Amino acid sequence: MPTLRLSLVATLIAFVATPAAWPDSQAKILEHLSIYEKRDAYCAWPAIARAQNGDIIVLFTRTEEHMAPNGEIMLSRSTDNGRTWQPPAVAYDTVIDDRESGLTTLADGTLLTHLRSVRFEASSYQNLPDTAYPPELIERWTDYVEKPEYQNAAQLSRAWQTVSVDNGVTWAPPTPGIDSIHGGIQLQNTGLLVASYRNDGGNIGVHAAPNPTAPWKQIATVPCPHPDTIRFGEPHVLQLASGRIVMMIRATAKPYDDGSPLCHLWASYSDDNGATWAPAYETPLWGYPPHLQQLSDGRILCTYGYRRAPFGQRACLSEDGITWSQDNEIVLRNDAANKDLGYPVSIELEPGRILSVYYQPNIPAGSNPATHPPHPNRKKPGILATIWEAPARN
Questions:
Q1: How confident is the model at residue 370 (pLDDT cuts 50, 70, 90)?
Q2: How far apart are CA 177 and CA 161, in angstroms?
Q3: How far is residue 327's CA from residue 25's CA, in Å, rounded to a whole number?
């Protein structure tokens, strides 16, 4: 069974980095923070939520490299509205690779995690191109996944979920769930809803449950076009104050090309609590994957990674969550060293002031270019953050 540990340490990680002035950004960048970095750790794919007591909780994956076979889910906490962060503790760890987490905050303060564990096979590494990783790393990973305890853990390879009723200090034993990269929502009619993509034949599946302990039921599918040229995935949903549910979806070119002009975000929406959805449509926003948040002034914020030069993190504001314009795109960072970055998630700290958390190497552009294979002693990505002010509403 997985290890579930507490996040009680109190040493704070100091602020690092001074924000540059981004002439092409409409927003005011206040400061850049480092939540967690470790020289020999590859840290990525954060999730975020505000606990009932006001703490901000960030989950992320810590592993050796992107394709390593034994990642773990870490939890870091801020008790001062995002300015400083406790060192992370292991929140979820099994013998196989735990590589995804999402968070959903329920009305009663319960925190629901969405987790995904993967058991790699030796063929997973033997079929990689020669430029993916150094041969000695592939050999070590192959030996690891062929150990009996790893091979015998097939039942752990799936989506899981667990809940906390004490603001993320302790967690209930995991139960089967639906994977959701950023988490889902609690609907205004009190039910739960998540969007997923791995088991829906290239489309987006919408799943609902009356509460965290009830089984999930697929209630809808969002059909996605161009299955021969585009792979759709990593959707995120948000219910607006009006009751409408909006969805943004990542699109990646086939064969895999994360720099392709096809990598625009796509969108859909539902006006009946997720039972039916508008056909997915392309937005002008290039980047991925999306995270949605409604601000206190009613505007909808979408944050996403930007894996073409200048590499970094971006955001966009929409009045309705349906129409999006590049004129409203905000550059949060354009100084990343390479395209090993992204997955920004955001939370409003106070009206108009936003915290966006993401992963990227914490070094200047041009100092650590991407290499194939990646050098084992390079600066690997860490969990970073930006505090910024949204532009005034027009």
A1: low
A2: 5
A3: 10
- The model's pLDDT over 197-214, given as tens digits with 9 standing for 90+, comes to 987 777 899 999 999 999
Rounded average pLDDT over 59-84? 97
> Which residues are paired to 163 by β-bridges?
112
- Mean pLDDT score across all residues of the chain: 91
Cα distance between the two ends of the chain: 53
Residue 2 pLDDT grade (very low, low, confident, very high; cuts 50, 70, 90): low
Q: Which residue has the tokens 């971006």?
A: 314
CATH class of the domain whose range is 28-389: mainly beta
213-263 tens-digit pLDDT: 999 999 999 989 999 999 999 999 999 999 999 999 999 999 999 999 999
